[in-house]
Amino acid sequence: MWARAVRFGLRSWVAWRRGFTSKADPQGNGRVSAQVIEHLERLALVDFGSQEAVARLEKAIAFADRLRAVDTGGVEPMESVLEDRCLYLRSDNVVEGNCAEELLQNAHRVVEEYFVAPPGNISLPKQDEQEPFSYN
Amino acid sequence: MAAPMLRGCCLARRGALACIDGGSRRGRGAAIGCRSSGKRGRSSVAQQSLITAQKSGKGEHAWAAVVGLEIHAQISSNSKLFSGSQVQFAAPPNSLVSFFDASLPGTLPVLNRRCVEAAVMTGLALKCHINKKSLFDRKHYFYADLPAGYQITQQRLPIAVNGSLEYSVCVGKKRSQVITRTARIKQIQLEQDSGKSLHDELRSQTLIDLNRAGVGLLEVVLEPDMSCGEEAATAVRELQLILQALGTSQANMAEGQLRVDANISVHHPGEPLGVRTEVKNLNSARFLARAIDSEIERQINELENGREILNETRSFDCKLGCTIPMRDKEGKQDYRFMPEPNLPPLLLYDTASLPPGADPQQVINIDRIREQLPELPSETREQLVQQYGMLPEHSFTILNEVGLLEFFQNVIKETRAEPKKVTSWILNNFLGFLKQQNLAVNESPVTPSALAELLNLLDRKAISSSAAKQVCIIKCLHVLFFY
C-alpha cells in the first residue's frame, strides 16, 4: 500500500516537474540530489534506506520522462482514470459507527476510549543524526 | 449559557460569549482555550480603513491593512461527507467513527449527496459560479487527528467560484449611516474535517477523538477585501446568518461549527502589499475582531521599528490579548496535492443539461436548488424596512441578535401598538434590559405575549412609559433572585 502511494505521489510530482527547471536534477543527468531525497523522506515518511532505492527512483523518473516525447499540445490532461465513471451519491443516512471498542483494539495505547498520541509531531531527525548511508 | 453574539454594526451592544478552543488544525502549537462566561468585555476600538501611526512618531504615513479570511463551516447533515457515520456534537469519544473515518485499509470514500446540495445552495446564495465539473484532491500532512495522513479537499477545481458577500458597516458620528461593503469570494470547496485533539500537558500526551473526523466542511475563501477587524467580524456574522437561513450549517462558533482563519498584512497605500501572516483558529465571534486588530497593530509596530514581518502562522492568545507564533518546526508546508484517485469528477447538471432517464437520486440539478433557496437575511431586512417602516440599521440589529427576529415578529402579531413603537421599544428598552442582566433573547423572562400586552397598555395610555420599563426590570430581576 505504501509503494502504491509513493508511486502515485511520484507520478504527480513528476508531472509538476515537467514545466519547471528541475531542482532535483540541475545537471540533467538523471540523478536525484541528496537534498531532494531528504525532503521526500521528511514529507512522506518513506525511508529510502539504500542507494538501490534511490537508483530505482531515478529509473522511475526517467521512465515517466519519456512522456515528454509525445506531443500533448492542445490535449486536456487526464486527471483520473475514473473520468468516465459516475460519482455515486449516497443518501444522507446514518448507517455506520458505534464501534469504538473494535477500533480502539487497534491502538497501542488507550485512555478512556481516546486514542493516545505523542504531544506533537515528532520531527524526523536531521540527516547527520540518521543511520548514515551515502547517497552518491 | 448566553448564545454567541457578534457586534454587527450600529447600536453597538456587547454581550457575553463563550470562547472555546474547538479547532484542531495542522500546524498549531499548544491549544489555547479561554472561557469568558458571563463577562462583558470591552469591544475593540472601532477601526477605520486607514490607521494613522500614532505612537512611534517616526513618519506619520498612514498604514492600510488588508485582511482575507478562510472560513470553515460544518455542513448540517446527518452523516459525514464520505462515510455513513453520524454527525453529532458531544457524543462519547470515538463512538461516531466508521472504518473509513479511522482510515483502516480497504475502505473507500462515498460522497454524501446532502453535502453536495449544501455546497451548491451556499454557492448560489453567495452569487458564485457553480462549476458543473469539480474535482477532489488529497492534501497531505501528518498529525495525530488526521488518521489517513491526508485530507480530501478540492484544491484544483472547487465546486463554486467567484462569488460575493455583502455586509454593512455603520459609520458616522452616531454610527447611523449604513454603508454596504462587498468581500469577493474566491471559492467554496467541500472538504473533510479532522478529528479532535485534547492536549494533556501534564502527562505529555494528546488524546484523540475521531468523532469529528470526516465531517463535511464548506471552506469559504474570502479575498483580502477587508481592512480591519470590525469589517471581518461583520462579514463573518453575515455569512453566519446566510448559512443559518439556508440551513446548510448551524454555524455556531461555540460548538466549533464555524472556524475562521485570517490572512493579514499591512502596507502604505499606493505601495505593494506587505508580507502576510496567517492567524488560525479564531473560534470565537468575540475575539475575532480583537485578534485581527491586534495583529495589524503588531505588524505596524514591527515595521515601524525597522523589523520585518515573517510569513508565519500565529494564533490568538485571548489572555495576553495578542497573537503569538505557533510552533511550526517544519517551515513552509509542502502538502503534495494530488488528485484523489478513488473519486471520479463530480458532475452537476441544470435543467437544460439533465441526462434523460437519469436516476433522480444520482443527479443534482442546480436550477432546482436555486428555485428552492429560502429567504436570505438581506431580503428579510429589506422586508422589515418595507413592512414596518423601520430604519435600515434597526433591521440589522434585529437580525444580528440571536432570536430577536422571531421575538419581534411574535410581538407584532399579538400587539395593537404601531410597528414603529414596537421597534423602538424593543431596540431601546427591551434589548437594554437583557444586556444589563446578561441574558440572551431566548432566556428573556418577558415573553412576546407579555411584551405585546405591555405595549397595548402603553398604547391605550393605561400606563406610563416609565411604569412599563419598571415592569420589565422587575421581571428581569425576578429571574436573578429566584432562579
From TrEMBL, chain A:
Localization, UniProt: Mitochondrion
The protein's Enzyme Commission number: 6.3.5.-
Assembly notes: Subunit of the heterotrimeric GatCAB amidotransferase (AdT) complex, composed of A (QRSL1), B (GATB) and C (GATC) subunits.
Gene field: GATC
GO cellular component labels: glutamyl-tRNA(Gln) amidotransferase complex; mitochondrion
Name used for this protein in its record: Glutamyl-tRNA(Gln) amidotransferase subunit C, mitochondrial
NCBIfam families named in the record: gatC
Similarity remark: Belongs to the GatC family.
Annotated organism of origin: Canis lupus dingo (dingo)
Catalytic activity: L-glutamyl-tRNA(Gln) + L-glutamine + ATP + H2O = L-glutaminyl-tRNA(Gln) + L-glutamate + ADP + phosphate + H(+)
Summary of the function given for this chain in its UniProt record: Allows the formation of correctly charged Gln-tRNA(Gln) through the transamidation of misacylated Glu-tRNA(Gln) in the mitochondria. The reaction takes place in the presence of glutamine and ATP through an activated gamma-phospho-Glu-tRNA(Gln).
Keywords from the named record: ATP-binding, Ligase, Mitochondrion, Nucleotide-binding, Protein biosynthesis
UniProtKB/TrEMBL annotation, chain B:
GO terms of biological process kind: glutaminyl-tRNAGln biosynthesis via transamidation; mitochondrial translation
Catalyzed chemical reaction(s): L-glutamyl-tRNA(Gln) + L-glutamine + ATP + H2O = L-glutaminyl-tRNA(Gln) + L-glutamate + ADP + phosphate + H(+)
A single GO cellular-component term on record: glutamyl-tRNA(Gln) amidotransferase complex
Pfam families reported for this sequence: GatB_N, GatB_Yqey
Subcellular location: Mitochondrion
Domain Asn/Gln amidotransferase: 406-471
GO MF terms held by the record: ATP binding; glutaminyl-tRNA synthase (glutamine-hydrolyzing) activity
Enzyme class, broadest EC rank: ligase
EC number of the protein: 6.3.5.-
Keywords: ATP-binding, Ligase, Mitochondrion, Nucleotide-binding, Protein biosynthesis, Transit peptide
Domain spans labelled Aspartyl/Glutamyl-tRNA(Gln) amidotransferase subunit B/E catalytic: 66-349
Self-association and partners: Subunit of the heterotrimeric GatCAB amidotransferase (AdT) complex, composed of A (QRSL1), B (GATB) and C (GATC) subunits.
Function comment: Allows the formation of correctly charged Gln-tRNA(Gln) through the transamidation of misacylated Glu-tRNA(Gln) in the mitochondria. The reaction takes place in the presence of glutamine and ATP through an activated gamma-phospho-Glu-tRNA(Gln).
UniProt record similarity statement: Belongs to the GatB/GatE family. GatB subfamily.
HAMAP family listed in its UniProt record: GatB
Name of this chain's protein: Glutamyl-tRNA(Gln) amidotransferase subunit B, mitochondrial
